[in-house]
Specification:
This protein is α+β, with helices and mostly antiparallel strands. It contains twelve helices and 25 strands. It has three domains: 98 residues, Immunoglobulin-like (Sandwich), CATH 2.60.40; 288 residues, SGNH hydrolase (Rossmann fold, 3-Layer(aba) Sandwich); 85 residues, no CATH class.
Length: 491
C-alpha cells in the first residue's frame, strides 16, 4: 500500500514536471501566411506552462490570459474586417516569445473528401495554362501531407506506423498561392477559391484535409458514428458495416501493426477536423463517395451518414448555418471500375439536397472519364461549387447555382411530364436530340419550355435519367449547366 502511494506520488510529480517544462506554443494551425476568418471573434490558442501569464498581440490589439492546469491557453480578439495587408500575431510568456507573420483576414473554407478532392493541380487538365495565373497572394493554402499519402497497395514502413497518431498524422504549414505551392494543392479547392477571389476580391484561406481512398466514416466524429449501429462495435479492419475495399487497403498498409490508419472511422475527424474546431470558418466543400459506392448497403446508408456529418460539424463548430457544398459523383464505365451502383449513389446525393438547408451540390456527370475514376477536369468542378457559395454566401443572386434538378413527374393521357428547378431555357448540350431518359429501356423525350415530356403507353412506375454509371445524357439549362441524373417515381 505504501509502495503504491509512493509510485502514485512519483507519477504525479513527473506529470507536474512535464507540464512545467512545456514551451510556449501556438496551436499547429497558426503559421506564417495564414488566413483568419473575418467578421467573427478571433480565437487564438495554444499551450504553455500552467499558471504562466501570456500576452497576445494582434497588430496593435492586446489581450492577456493565464495558462490553465492542462497547459492550454486561449484568447479572443474582436471581429475583424477583410484585410489583404499582412498582419502579425505575437505571444509572450515570461522569456518566451513567438510570432506569426503575414496574416490576412478573409474567408476560410475547409476542403475535405477523398482522392478527387486531393487530386493535385499538377495533374489537372488546365494546369499548363492556369499556372501562369497561379500567383494569387490573396489565396492562402494550408495543404498538409499525411501519413500514408500516395502509398497504395503495400505496407507502411515502421517509421510511418510509429507516426500513426492523430497528433502527428497531418503535418504542414500555410503558404501563399503561387506557381510552385499550387502544384500539390487540391485542384478543386484552388479553382473554388480562385472563383471567389476573382468575383469578391476577398482573401481566401483553403484548409485541405482530403485523404485519397478514404470512406466517409473517417471524417465523422465518434459522436456522430454512434447513430449507426455496428460502425464502432468491432475492430474496423474486420467490421462488415464498412466498405470492403477500404478494409482491404487498410490491411495491406498496416498488417499486424495495429489498427491506426487514415481510413479508420473517426480518424480524420480526430486528426484534422477536431484540432481546428476552435477556429471560425466560412464553410466546407466535400468531394467523396467513390469508396462508399461499391456495395448496395453502403449506397443506401450514405445520405444518412453525410447528413449526420453535416449536422455534427455545424453543432461542433457552433455555426448552425455553416455552408456545406458537395460534388455529385461523375461518370465512369463498369469495365475499369466497380461503378454498378453509381446511378443510385448519385441519386442519393441529389435527394439529400431536400434535407440540407444551406447546402448545395455540383453536378459533374457530364465531365467524367470513361476509364478513369479521377477525371482530369477539376476546374469545372471547383467553379460549379463556387456558384453555390457565390449565390448563397456572397449574395450574387443573379447567378444560377445548378443545372436542372427534377421536382416531380406526373402522368396524364399517355404522357409523362417532368418539372425542374433551375430549368429555365432547357436545351441539349450538343444541339442534338435529347438523350438519357429511360422507361423500361431508352425512351424518346422532348423539351417543352421548362419541362420534359415522354410519350408512353400506359402509366409507368418511374422515369429515369442518366441512369448509367457512365452517361452521355445531354439535358442542360440556359447556363449550360447539366441536369442531375435521377430516378423519379410517378404517383
Amino acid at each position: 500500500m505504501v509502495l503504491y502511494s509512493n509510485l502514485r506520488s512519483i507519477s504525479q510529480i513527473m506529470t507536474l514536471a512535464t507540464l512545467l517544462t512545456i514551451h510556449l506554443q501556438f496551436a499547429a494551425i497558426f503559421t506564417d501566411n495564414m488566413v483568419l476568418q473575418r467578421g467573427q471573434p478571433v480565437h487564438v490558442w495554444g499551450r504553455g506552462a500552467p499558471g504562466e501569464r501570456v500576452t497576445v498581440w494582434l497588430g496593435g490589439l492586446r489581450v492577456t490570459a493565464v495558462v490553465q492546469a492542462d497547459s492550454a491557453w486561449g484568447v479572443y480578439f474582436q471581429a475583424q474586417g477583410a484585410d489583404s495587408v499582412g498582419r502579425e500575431l505575437r505571444v509572450v510568456s515570461g522569456r518566451d516569445s513567438l510570432r506569426v507573420r503575414n496574416i490576412l483576414f478573409g474567408d476560410v473554407w475547409v476542403c475535405v473528401g477523398q482522392s478527387n478532392m486531393e487530386f493535385p493541380m499538377s495533374g489537372e487538365r488546365y494546369f499548363s495554362e492556369e499556372k501562369t495565373f497561379a500567383g494569387q497572394p490573396s489565396i492562402r493554402l494550408y495543404n498538409p501531407s499525411f501519413i500514408g499519402k500516395n502509398v497504395y497497395g503495400r505496407a507502411f514502413t515502421d517509421s510511418m506506423l510509429r507516426l500513426l497518431t492523430p497528433g502527428a498524422f497531418y503535418q504542414g504549414v500555410w503558404s501563399v498561392c503561387d506557381s510552385v505551392t499550387v502544384r500539390t494543392m487540391s485542384a478543386v479547392g484552388y479553382y473554388f477559391g480562385k472563383a471567389i477571389v476573382d468575383k469578391e476580391h476577398v482573401p481566401i484561406g483553403l484548409i485541405h484535409l482530403a485523404i485519397g481512398g478514404c470512406p466517409i466514416e473517417t471524417f465523422l466524429s465518434r459522436d456522430a458514428l454512434r447513430e449507426f449501429p455496428g460502425k464502432l462495435d468491432s475492430p474496423w479492419l474486420e467490421n462488415n458495416t464498412l466498405p470492403v475495399w477500404v478494409r482491404e487497403r487498410g490491411r495491406q498498409n498496416v498488417g499486424t501493426g495495429g489498427d491506426a490508419h487514415g481510413y479508420k472511422p473517426g480518424w480524420a475527424f480526430a486528426a484534422g477536423i477536431a484540432p481546428i474546431l476552435p477556429m471560425p470558418i466560412k464553410g466546407i466543400i466535400w468531394y467523396q463517395g467513390e469508396s462508399n459506392s461499391q456495395e448496395p448497403e453502403r449506397v443506401e446508408e450514405y445520405p444518412r451518414l453525410q447528413k449526420a456529418m453535416i449536422e455534427d460539424y455545424r453543432k461542433k463548430w457552433r455555426q448552425p448555418h455553416l455552408p456545406f457544398y458537395w460534388v455529385q459523383l461523375s461518370s465512369i464505365d463498369t469495365v475499369q471500375y466497380k461503378s454498378r451502383y453509381w446511378p443510385a449513389f448519385r441519386d442519393g446525393q441529389r435527394r439529400l439536397l431536400a434535407e440540407i438547408a444551406d447546402g448545395g451540390m455540383a453536378v459533374c456527370s457530364d465531365i467524367g472519364a470513361r476509364d478513369n475514376v479521377h477525371p482530369a477536369d477539376k476546374r469545372t468542378v471547383g467553379q460549379r461549387l463556387a456558384r453555390w457559395a457565390l449565390h448563397d454566401v456572397y449574395g450574387e443572386k443573379g447567378l444560377v447555382v445548378s443545372g436542372p434538378l427534377p421536382l416531380r413527374a406526373s402522368y396524364a393521357r399517355d404522357t409523362v411530364t417532368i418539372y425542374f428547378q433551375y430549368g429555365r431555357g432547357l436545351r441539349t448540350a450538343d444541339g442534338g436530340a435529347l438523350r438519357g431518359f429511360y422507361i423500361n429501356g431508352a425512351a424518346p423525350a422532348f423539351i417543352q419550355g421548362d419541362h420534359v415530356v415522354l410519350p408512353v403507353k400506359g402509366k409507368p412506375a418511374a422515369v429515369y435519367y442518366g441512369w448509367e454509371p457512365f452517361t452521355n445524357a445531354n439535358l442542360v439549362n440556359e447556363d449550360e449547366l447539366p441536369a442531375s441524373t435521377f430516378k423519379m417515381n410517378i404517383p
